[in-house]
Amino acid sequence: MKLEHITLREIRMPLLAPFETSFGATDERRIVLVEVIGEGAAGWGEVTAGEKPFYNEESTDTAWYILRQFAIPKALESPLSAASEAAALWSNIRGHYMATGGLEAALWDWEAKLRERPLHALIGGVHREIPCGVSIGIKPSIEQLLETIAKEVAAGYQRIKIKIKPGWDIEVLDKVRERFPRLKLMADANSAYTLADKAHLKLLDRFYLMMLEQPLAHDDIIDHAKLQQYIETPICLDESIRTVRHAEQAIELAACRIINIKLGRVGGFLRAKQIHDCCQAAGIPVWCGGMLESGVGRAANIALSTLPNFVLPGDVSASKRYWTQDVVSPEVEVTPRGTIRVPDGPGIGYEADRERIEHLTIRKESFP
Ligand code: OSB
Ligand code: MG
Predict the structure, then answer these.
(1) Residue among 218, 315, 321 whose CB has most ligand 1 atoms within 8 A, to mutate
(2) 153/270 Cα distance (integer angstroms)
(3) What percent of the chain is modeled with pLDDT above 70?
């Protein structure tokens, strides 16, 4: 595969509504899109880093720096015969998986387009329709949260995840359960607690949640294992799992019963598939997380979700929940039964809308 050019673009996209987690609120995304061009085809990838280094160590600006200084020069000087070889090119870059993962995802889309195949087929996907849930941020009031949940349930979403933090947990879940006793419900703390809160976290058992996502430190496995022994609610790890080794160690220590896989957090498709396969072999179900992606990253998440062990509803939902207008055509749509039909076009199966992207671009650099 002869790679000719790589273009980085930073686009700005205001969210329809602010999204608040235990580490802060976001109202406008600054997203880095990667376009790779060669042999008459273009591949697109999205860097899922946040604007600020609060979910993990990465940010829009650090990703731009890592890509232009290290990852892109390496990609342009290295012959590649398949996108599956790309991740190894950056094995000497410590961390920064969202940066390299965005470039890796673009290479997979490019390879799939060169071979005129859908990306889900290239990675070995099996599902043709994927179950969808939604992630609902911390709201100014419980009443507003309940209204939002009601709206998403009416739209057909199969499970609801709410964000929690100290002071926005027990009372909130009490009210949610009172109004929606049978809802498939889970909570995500984004590392807002410590093991000293274990008695408090045990109170969550009475809400029979599907899972409690990442209650403890972003880089911890051992304390999660201690907590999982103490509570009934299944723990799902997000931030703590960045490599297949982390997944193996978390499983060996019984630190979780479920793993959330995010394409960016783990450095792209090859590494996501390694974690998927490791979980599958151990009987640990996985689901696809989201990072408030534009349509480019959303499309990649859909392809990833077709792998066989993605058996739980993910955080991949309709474009119109986030944006007035997305950057892909068609936009990502969800059926009334809360699923996304996997598109069968080449590559990610949704076309990058160049005019829209150009309009949103605030910085652009091409290599060489
Ligand atoms: O922890 O899953 C998370 C958004 C930003 C950072 C971290 C997380 C999230 C979400 C949103 O939960 C999922 C989405 O709707 O894209
Ligand atoms: Mg999470």
Answers:
(1) 315
(2) 34
(3) 100
The residue count of the chain comes to 368
CB 135 near ligand 1, within 6 Å: yes
Concatenate the DSSP letters of all residues of 21-83 into one string.
ETTEEEEEEEEEEEEEEETTEEEEEEE---SSTTSSS--HHHHHHHIIIIIHHHHHHS--SSG
Q: Which amino acids are annotated catalytic?
A: 163, 262
The Cα 312–Cα 210 span in angstroms is 10
Give the C-alpha separation, 252 to 249, whole Å. 5
Does any ligand 1 atom lie closer than 6 A to the CB of residue 315? yes
Q: Which ligand is nearest to the CA of 137?
A: 1
pLDDT band at 133 (very low <50, low <70, confident <90, very high): very high
State both tokens at 41: 């085809």
Reported as a single tens digit per residue, the pLDDT across 258-280 is: 999 999 999 999 999 999 999 99
